[in-house]
Write a structure and sequence with these properties.
Layout lengths: L1 H4 L20 H15 L4 E6 L5 H11 L4 E6 L6 H11 L9 H17 L3 E6 L7 H10 L3 E2 L2 E2 L2 E6 L1 H7 L5 H6 E7 L4 H14 L10 H11 L3 H17 L7 H10 L11 H5 L3 H20 L3 H19 L6 H36 L5 E2 H5 L5 E5 L6 H8 L5 H10 L14 E5 L5
Parallel strand pairs: 1-6, 1-7, 2-3, 3-6, 7-8
Antiparallel strand pairs: 4-5, 9-10
Helix pairs in contact: 4-5, 9-10, 10-11, 10-12, 11-12, 14-15, 15-16
Length: 442
C-alpha cells in the first residue's frame, strides 16, 4: 500500500462520497448556495444535474450535513421502482410505518406527518438521487408529492439529482407540469485544468500529505487532459499512478507514470491523424467540412447555452454535411459539374433554413418568460444569505470557505451585518442559528 511510502494518513483518492474530501470549486459553491437558497425560501422543487463522477452525491451529503438538526430529511437511492414502492421508501426513510398499506393511506400518513413537522418548526426535505432512472409515471407521482402544502408554504421540499438524461426526460411534453415546478436548477460542470490541479492538492492535504510537488506539473496537466475534468476519473488516475509509483519506488509522480496509469484504465486513447497521402485525397467538400466542425466545436464550448447560436451552429453543421454527403460520385466533367451544382444548391437551402430557424428561435426566447431561477441567478438574488444551524466542529472560517470561497475582512464585515447579535465570530455555539452570505461579497 502506498500510504506509508508517500506518508499519507489515509486514502486521498477513494471512491466513497466523503464530505471531508468535497473540493469546493466555484461551480460547487454556486450549486451549494443555490440549493441552500431554495430550501431556505421554500421553493418546492429543486434540481441538480451533473455528469457521472462529478460529485453530486457528495454535494448532497454536504448539504444534508449542513442542515442537520434543522430539517427532517429523506434520501432515496432506489429509483428503479414503481409509484407505490417510491412512497413506501419515502415513508420508511422518514421513520413512518408503511407495511401493507395502500397508496391512499400512505399519502394520508405522509400529509399528517408533514403538518406535524411544520407545526414543530422543522422543514422536510427529500433528496432523490439518480432521478433520471425514474419512469414517467413515478415522476408524476413525485410531482403530486408537491401538492402537500399549507396556505402560506410548501410542506415538502424535493431535490431531484441526476445525470444530464434527467434534463432530457423533463423536456418531454408529458412532464411539462413537473418541469415548470422546478424553481431552481443547479449544474455541476467538469473542472477546468487549473481547478484539477487545485483539486488534487486539496485531497492530498486532507489525507495528511505535508510535502509539495508529489505530482509534477506535467503529470497534473496530463491528468486534467485524460480525466476531462471529472473528479471520479481524476481519483482513479491518481490512485493508479500512486500505486505504480510505490511499486517502482518512485517518490514523485511524473507524466510517464500518469500515462501508464491512464493506459491501464483504457484512457490512453488518441484520435488517429491523417497521413500526407490521405490529406491530399480529401475532396473539396471534406475540406469545407473540417472548418465547419471546428467552428461548431468552438460554438458548442462557448455558446451552447444560448439557443440562437446553438440553432445556427447546428444548421451550419447540417449544411456542411449536406455538401459532403450530397456530392455525386460520377467521374470526369460530369462529377465536377454535379458537385458544383450540388454544393450550390445545398448551400442555398442551408442558408435559407438558417435565417428562419434562428429568427423563430430568437422569437421563442423573447416570448417565453423564465419559469425557473438558475443557479447563477439564485446566487446573485438580492436575498443573498441563508440561515444555518451550527454543527459540532464548525468554524466560521470553514463555513465561509465552503460557501463564499474565502475568509477575509470583507466577508467578516458582511457576516456581522447579517448577524448583529454575533459578538465573537471566532466562537460559535452548537445549535446557534446564524446567517451566512450565499456568494462572494463586494
Amino acid at each position: 500500500m502506498f500510504l506509508d511510502f508517500y506518508k499519507l494518513h489515509e486514502q486521498p483518492f477513494g471512491v466513497t462520497p466523503d464530505p471531508r474530501y468535497l473540493y469546493f470549486s466555484p461551480g460547487h459553491r454556486e450549486a451549494l448556495a443555490s440549493l441552500f437558497y431554495g430550501i431556505e425560501t421554500g421553493r418546492g422543487f429543486l434540481s441538480l444535474i451533473a455528469e457521472p463522477g462529478m460529485g453530486k452525491t457528495t454535494l448532497l451529503f454536504q448539504l444534508l450535513q449542513r442542515w442537520k438538526g434543522y430539517v427532517h430529511s429523506a434520501f432515496l437511492f432506489q429509483t428503479q421502482c414503481d409509484s407505490r414502492e417510491l412512497v413506501r421508501y419515502l415513508l420508511d426513510d422518514l421513520g413512518l410505518q408503511s407495511a401493507g398499506e395502500d397508496i391512499v393511506r400512505m399519502h394520508s400518513d405522509l400529509n399528517d406527518f408533514l403538518y406535524r413537522e411544520t407545526k414543530a418548526g422543522r422543514r422536510v426535505v427529500v433528496f432523490i438521487d439518480e432521478a433520471q432512472n425514474l419512469s414517467d409515471t413515478v415522476l408524476e407521482t413525485v410531482r403530486l408529492l408537491s401538492d402537500f402544502e399549507a396556505p402560506d408554504k410548501k410542506l415538502l421540499q424535493i431535490i431531484l439529482a441526476g445525470q444530464p438524461e434527467l434534463e432530457q426526460r423533463l423536456a418531454r411534453p408529458g412532464l411539462a407540469q413537473l418541469r415548470q415546478r422546478i424553481a431552481i436548477r443547479s449544474r455541476l460542470d467538469p473542472l477546468p485544468p487549473d481547478e484539477v490541479i487545485r483539486y488534487v492538492d486539496y485531497r492530498l492535504g486532507v489525507a495528511g500529505y505535508e510535502g509539495s510537488g508529489l505530482f509534477t506539473r506535467g503529470a497534473l496537466e496530463l491528468i486534467a487532459e485524460r480525466s476531462r475534468g471529472i473528479p471520479r476519473i481524476i481519483n482513479n488516475i491518481c490512485f493508479n499512478a500512486l500505486s505504480l509509483g510505490c511499486a517502482k519506488q518512485q517518490r514523485q509522480i511524473d507524466s510517464e507514470l500518469v500515462k501508464e496509469a491512464a493506459r491501464d484504465l483504457a484512457m490512453d486513447i488518441h484520435v488517429p491523424q491523417l497521413g500526407t497521402a490521405e490529406t491530399q485525397t480529401l475532396t473539396g467538400s471534406a475540406r469545407v467540412l473540417r472548418p465547419l466542425l471546428q467552428s461548431y466545436r468552438w460554438i458548442k464550448d462557448n455558446l451552447i447555452r444560448r439557443r440562437l447560436f446553438q440553432t445556427s451552429a447546428i444548421a451550419l453543421m447540417l449544411c456542411g454535411m449536406g455538401i459532403y454527403v450530397g456530392a455525386p460520385s460520377r467521374s470526369g466533367t460530369l462529377r465536377q459539374q454535379g458537385s458544383k451544382h450540388s454544393n450550390s444548391e445545398s448551400s442555398r437551402r442551408a442558408a435559407d433554413s438558417i435565417v428562419p430557424a434562428a429568427r423563430n428561435e430568437a422569437t421563442r426566447a423573447q416570448d417565453s418568460p423564465p419559469q425557473t431561477i438558475s443557479a447563477t441567478n439564485a446566487a446573485r438574488n438580492p436575498i443573498s444569505s441563508f440561515a444555518y444551524v451550527v454543527q459540532p466542529k464548525d468554524t466560521l472560517r470553514d463555513l465561509c470557505v465552503s460557501t463564499v470561497g474565502r475568509y477575509d475582512g470583507t466577508v467578516v464585515s458582511k457576516i456581522r451585518e447579517l448577524n448583529p447579535s454575533l459578538k465573537n465570530p471566532d466562537h460559535l455555539d452548537v445549535g446557534q442559528e446564524i446567517r451566512l452570505p450565499m456568494s462572494g461579497t463586494k
